[in-house]
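does this look right to u?? 2-oxoglutaric acid version
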Amino acid sequence: MNLNKIKSDFERDGFVRIPNFLSKAEVAEIGKNFNRIIEDVVPAMPREAVFYEGETSKDTLKQLIDIHKHDPYFDGILKQGKFKAIAEWLLDDEVVGKTLEYFNKPPLIGKATPPHQDGFYFMLNPSVAVTMWMALEPADLDNGCVQYVIGSHRGEMRPHGRTQTLGFSQGIINFGLPKDEQNLVSLSAEPGDLLVHHSLTVHLAGANKSQRSRKALGLIYFGKSAKEDLQAKAAYQQLLQSQHIPDQRKI
Ligand SMILES: O=C(O)CCC(=O)C(=O)O
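got this back:
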């Protein structure tokens, strides 16, 4: 791993792909633990932390949030070790691990992830935070890999509005400007490849049109220098209430 190159790519593009960040054995261990969570822990998790694509069944499970609050193994993954260290390196800051998530797009029914900036959900000032997305299975355009708008982290916070996508309630309302179209790239990934993006980077993912699932681990880190914008947060909570959204994604 060339850490300097990883950081300069991240600073230039607003995201970086780190191939083989975890070994196949480490990925298998995480996959095994997610299976354990789905069997043993999900039944006791709060409703607003578990999202299904349509009916409630293991085959339609699409997202789990805040898993670290329910399980010491995943708390350790979030708060110790390699993921946290790379977040600190990229942000030039001490970081706090905020949440650990599970993402899937079930075969044929996994819906698209709307274009958004994570910072809109976080309400930080300055918006010093990263999201990590590590493939547990091959991800490509057919099953809905992550797509980024290169350099968008250097732009402004875009206007967001209500979507109908469970787990991603807010999306950019004017997405599709020439600067979006011209700079959009798809990042296919193999198991163990890690994608890291800045909280202002515009990103999305397509629907899963394939017969394969698309499972991934998600992690979010805030820099110690990022302060919660309490006024903006209160306004955001009010907005969610007015939209009848009981949960707040990510945090
Ligand atoms: O898994 C996905 O489809 C997208 C994940 C994402 O957008 C995020 O974690 O911010």
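Residues 103, 113, 118, 131, 133, 146, 203, 205, 216, 218 surround 2-oxoglutaric acid (CB under 6 Å). idk if thats expected tbh
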